[in-house]
């Protein structure tokens, strides 16, 4: 089963775009029954796909509603568990639970037979729900926008993974760093790529194929569709597909992420 968290401790780096499009890719290109979960109180996944469910992630987490009551269809093979402002209260309620880091694992495992893949988008901050998501999925992709603060956020995400592995033996794998909104004409791009190369070498994390800047991303958002559905032949969509293939190979066991050759953007 494919289980993956998309995480970076800085916002605006393309986390939700990557999560939505990877879920769409698995559901439509790979024909896998896919569950996309939004644990962010901003509810960006629902906004991006124009979804209006009757119940949300908080109902599943706190009120223990059946998962089917809280998900909403976003097309072929794709079910979405949306987040909203009540997620903040849900996390507070979870804080006092016994073995709270395992909460999402305990809640989701009974439903796993209904899905082939679970993709989780988390908030851009270190919090309990992010911990729960990482412990459950055990695979993490870190998108990195072409700004230095995004690189700092990537380092913080890796530190979170390392800490969880040390403290609770979570066995979380950083699948790769995903460069996003790459424009080689900008000098900051070179700086961030150099930083990614150092991070890749220091922590032995692969650099995934880069996602180039493309106005189609904003157009897809305005159309309230996944980019891969809205403009599948665009340059960013094709870049995502290339990256998603590598991610899928890694999770399905085509080799340890430590054995993937780090790639740089030309």
Commentary on this structure:
The chain has helices spanning 15-29, 44-49, 57-61, 67-70, 87-94, 103-108, 128-137, 148-168, 187-203, 216-222, 227-230, 235-251, and strands at 2-6, 34-38, 71-73, 78-81, 117-121, 139-145, 173-180. It has 266 residues and is of the alpha/beta class. It has one domain (2-259): P-loop containing nucleotide triphosphate hydrolases (Rossmann fold, 3-Layer(aba) Sandwich), CATH 3.40.50. A 7-stranded mixed sheet has the order 3-4-2-5-1-6-7, sandwiched between helices. The protein is globular and about 50 Å long. The two termini are 33 Å apart.
CATH structural class: Alpha Beta
Which architecture name does CATH use? Answer: 3-Layer(aba) Sandwich
Rounded radius of gyration (Å): 17 Å
Number of helices: 12
Envelope shape? globular
Share of helical residues: 40-55%
Query: Tally of extended strands?
Result: 7
Short structural summary:
The protein is built from 12 helices and 7 strands. With 266 residues, it is of the alpha/beta class.
Itemize the secondary structure elements and their pairings.
Blueprint: E1 2-6, H1 15-29, E2 34-38, H2 44-49, H3 57-61, H4 67-70, E3 71-73, E4 78-81, H5 87-94, H6 103-108, E5 117-121, H7 128-137, E6 139-145, H8 148-168, E7 173-180, H9 187-203, H10 216-222, H11 227-230, H12 235-251
Parallel strand pairs: 1-5, 1-6, 2-4, 2-5, 6-7
Antiparallel strand pairs: 3-4
What are the defining features of this structure?
single chain; 266 residues; alpha/beta; Rossmann fold; seven-stranded mixed β-sheet; 12 helices; disordered C terminus
